[in-house]
Design a protein that fits this description.
The complex is a heterodimer of chains A (about 300) and B (about 325). Chain A has about 300 residues and is an alpha/beta fold. Chain A is about 30% helix and about 15% strand. Chain A has 2 domains: about 35 residues, no CATH class; about 230 residues, 2-enoyl-CoA Hydratase, Chain A, domain 1, CATH 3.90.226. The chains are: A alpha/beta (about 300), B alpha/beta (about 325). Bound molecules: zinc ion.
């Protein structure tokens, strides 16, 4: 496993280190407008205590929240050709990339990690929305292929957590090609008989929703997450109509049969543990120890039998 | 009246002149006949010059040309005994996607693709080639059918993109496209796609995750329309020409990027000037591609997987 780092980071940290954030810092909920103590918001997993609005969660926090003890191993991805088209709009794509790399400290918009969830080995591929809107280009496709293959090698389930506006325009057609590529990755996992969970977070749209993200064995969404193919503005311009309230929100998709469940952030981990356990440990969990086979000699007299029942 | 694109104006003027002269000509007027043939030669030269160096934006306009042959024209010319098959068995029949069984150069095949329509009435009926979930689900159904009967699938792609509407979203546009791509990748029969006009984003790749992907010379294939890209990245749709340039959406660029496998040359002045020749050229190219696939490995699914997995970084082996 040449590309895998052996670097384990036991990242058991308090949600907020006191030194980082002054006590008097406030955040305003974009949904209800209420002021919230920054520390209180962080302690509440960035969910508004007043209205339940789920704000975006940084990838590192997401991984800490889901992996047992917040401990996981990050996977180094191969270095992608970052600008295959030599793309330039008002800015060079390479400059946009560098900016995102500097502000996020990441090389691209996906993080692949392995760890345990409820003691089960699991691989997670999580999108970083702060990196160019979580857009999917070649490097993100690489991450998804790597995550699926790692899960297959580990014989573990894969959880993908999109937070993405869609394809990365600056990689042109090659970003479009990540749609079939990522689908192949999750199909390989499926053929290996391993569970594929998708945790849809805000937003999951465009080419990301129209590929691997909508093909999960089980699709879980965070409350209020925008999930859909076309952007709301594009739809409004096309049909010249107002969109119905709650359009493309997680609850709306649930109602229309597009996802399995909407789960509040505080219950995500427990939900995943339960699902993984149900799919991966189909036998009753109170161990039923099979009786040792009796050899013909033993059939004749009451003698102590040394059981061989292992785990 | 034929439609002329802006950059074709000089050509249009010359052809107008030729028309006028022809009307004036009484039989046997040698002077006029000579003038006509001189002007015709000029038109051909101008067409050759113009079409040899179309900009990406000009190609986009040619790809969208209203007189360019559409799916129905290809089916009519190339497919014998075409029998359209309707409906997704779940919700509706989507006329933006037409599909069915027919005989292509002697062989039974499944044909599927987007139809844009050719006048106001048919454009509305086919929703300008913008499919809804039921269209992609019909395509899935037909591909599975082809798989069951071991028929090769030919898809002809011509769409601005998937339809952005409320109902389409409610019925799972994203899921329908995702599963359509997955179906392209999963079937065990040969799949050949040709981008015949506009290859618009997710709506195009839904039918084009193929063993062989061909493009007509002046077709375009892109992750987003130049207008959409410009309005996002340049904050103004007026920069569509710059976006078309930057997106590398022409057949020549995509061949260089190894995203397509071949280019089908168009008749002089584009497919709309000689529709029959364009259609024949596509027919020949598809026949050639199918023959090549038939002679190669018969694991078409593995072939497709390897091909699309390679469209990214070289991934190290695990263990
Ligand atoms: Zn609130």
């Amino acid at each position: 496993m040449s590309w895998l780092t052996n670097f384990v980071r036991p990242k058991i940290q308090a949600w907020v280190r006191k030194s980082e954030v002054p006590d008097n810092l406030w955040d305003k909920c974009p949904n209800c407008g209420q002021m919230i103590f920054h520390r209180e918001l962080e302690a509440n997993l960035r969910v508004c205590p007043h209205c339940g609005h789920h704000m975006r969660l940084p990838v590192a926090k997401r991984l800490e929240l889901l992996f047992d003890d917040g401990a996981y191993q990050r996977i180094d991805l191969p270095k992608a050709d970052l600008d295959p088209l030599k793309f330039r709009d008002r800015k060079r794509y390479t400059d946009r990339l560098k900016e995102s790399q500097t502000t996020t400290g990441e090389t691209d918009a996906i993080v692949v990690a392995r760890g345990r969830i409820g003691a089960h080995a699991v691989v997670i591929a999580a999108f970083n929305f702060d990196f160019m809107g979580g857009s999917m280009g070649v490097a993100v496709g690489d991450g998804l292929v790597a995550a699926a293959r790692l899960a297959i090698a580990d014989e573990s389930p894969l959880i993908v957590i999109p937070a993405s506006g869609g394809a990365r325009m600056q990689e042109g057609i090659l970003s479009l090609m990540q749609m079939p590529r990522s689908i192949i990755a999750v199909e390989e996992l499926r053929e290996a008989g391993l569970p594929y969970f998708v945790l849809l977070t805000d937003p999951t749209t465009g080419g990301v929703s129209a590929s691997f993200a909508m093909l999960g064995d089980i699709a879980i969404a965070e409350p209020g997450a925008v999930i859909g193919f076309a952007g709301a503005r594009v739809i409004e311009e096309t049909i010249r109509e107002k969109l119905p309230p709650g359009f493309q929100r997680a609850e709306y998709l649930l109602e229309h049969g597009m996802i399995d469940m909407v789960v509040p952030r505080s219950e995500l981990k427990a939900t995943l543990v339960r699902l993984i356990s149900l799919l991966r440990q189909p036998a009753p969990s109170a161990e039923i120890v099979p009786l040792p086979k009796l050899s013909p000699a033993l059939l004749h007299g009451p003698r102590e039998v040394q059981g061989e029942a292992g785990e | 009246m034929p439609t002329f694109l802006d950059f074709e104006k000089p050509i249009a003027e010359l052809e107008g002149k030729i028309e006028e002269l022809r009307h004036l000509a009484t039989s046997g007027d040698i002077n006029i006949a000579e003038e006509v043939s001189r002007l015709q030669a000029k038109v051909d030269r101008l067409l050759r010059q113009t079409y040899a160096k179309l900009t990406p934006w000009q190609k986009t306009l040619v790809a969208r040309h209203p007189e360019r042959p559409h799916l129905k024209d290809y089916i009519q010319e190339l497919i014998d005994d075409f029998t359209p098959l309707a409906g997704d068995r779940l919700y509706a029949d989507d006329a933006a996607i037409i599909g069915g069984i027919g005989r292509f150069r002697g062989w039974s095949a499944m044909i599927v693709g987007q139809e844009k329509g050719s006048d106001t009435e048919t454009r509305v009926r086919h929703n300008f080639g913008m499919a809804k979930p039921e269209g992609y689900r019909k395509a899935q159904r037909l591909m599975h059918l082809a798989d069951r009967y071991k028929l090769p699938v030919v898809s002809l792609v011509d769409t601005p993109g998937a339809y952005p509407g409320i109902g389409a979203e409610e019925r799972g546009q994203a899921e329908a496209i995702a599963r359509c791509i997955a179906t392209c990748l999963k079937i065990e029969v040969p799949l050949v796609s040709v981008i015949i006009g506009e290859g618009g984003s997710g709506g195009a790749i839904a039918l084009a995750a193929a063993n062989t992907v061909l493009m007509l010379e002046h077709a375009v294939y892109s992750v987003i329309s130049p207008e959409g890209c410009a309005s996002i990245l340049w904050r103004s749709a007026e920069h569509a020409q710059d976006a078309a340039e930057a997106l590398k959406l022409t057949a020549a660029d995509l061949l260089k990027l190894k995203v397509i496998d071949g280019i089908v040359p168009e008749p002089l002045g584009g497919a709309h000037r000689d529709r029959a020749a364009a259609i024949d050229a596509v027919g020949d190219a598809v026949e050639g591609a199918l023959a090549q696939l038939r002679n190669g490995s018969d694991d078409y699914k593995a072939h497709r997987r390897a091909k699309f997995l390679a469209m990214g970084s070289q991934m190290p082996e695990i263990r």
